[in-house]
């Protein structure tokens, strides 16, 4: 398993706050995420999945955690628009935004092609009905070696 702290520097590199209880009520985090999370400048692994954030928006400041390689916000009951600041997460290898109780609205995914390191993307359960469909599939094709799970049926061939 991953360690939460680098042995050499003592810096926090992993924060796993995934709720381990399957009933979705016991042990959940809720409410707003505090921006003090930004003090963890060396964070590469952030898991807030399986919590109940009660429909609050995904905080824009998550896009400031530029060293993130793994971000899991699945089944965490976030709502609203997926922040454009996610485009700053160019080191991200894995992004899971799936299965919200309150479906987030992805009306603008122009940030997606900037995630040049992305290997895994899960958008299952994300409302893509308002996304600009003429560029979304093409943008995803520019991401090499991407395993994408999302409600789009047809993808164009890679360029």
From TrEMBL:
Compartments where located: Membrane
GO cellular component, one term: membrane
Membrane topology, from the record: Single-pass type I membrane protein
SUPFAM superfamilies for this protein: L domain-like (SSF52058)
Pfam families, per database record: LRR_8
Keywords from the UniProt entry: Glycoprotein, Membrane, Receptor, Signal, Transmembrane, Transmembrane helix
UniProt-recorded name of the protein: Scab resistance protein
């Amino acid at each position: 398993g991953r360690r939460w702290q680098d042995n050499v520097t003592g810096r926090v590199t992993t924060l796993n706050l995934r709720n381990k209880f399957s009933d979705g009520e016991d042990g959940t985090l809720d409410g707003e995420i505090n921006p003090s999370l930004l003090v963890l400048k060396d964070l590469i692994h952030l898991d807030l999945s399986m919590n109940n954030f009660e429909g609050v928006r995904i905080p824009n400041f998550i896009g400031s955690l530029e060293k993130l390689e793994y971000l899991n916000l699945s089944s965490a009951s976030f709502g609203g628009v997926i922040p454009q600041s996610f485009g700053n997460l160019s080191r991200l290898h894995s992004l899971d935004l799936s299965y919200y109780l309150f479906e987030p609205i992805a009306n603008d995914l122009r940030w997606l092609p900037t995630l040049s390191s992305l290997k895994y993307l899960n958008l299952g359960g994300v409302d893509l009905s308002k996304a600009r469909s003429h560029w979304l599939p093409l943008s995803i094709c520019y991401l090499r070696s991407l395993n994408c799970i999302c409600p789009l049926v047809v993808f164009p061939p890679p360029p």
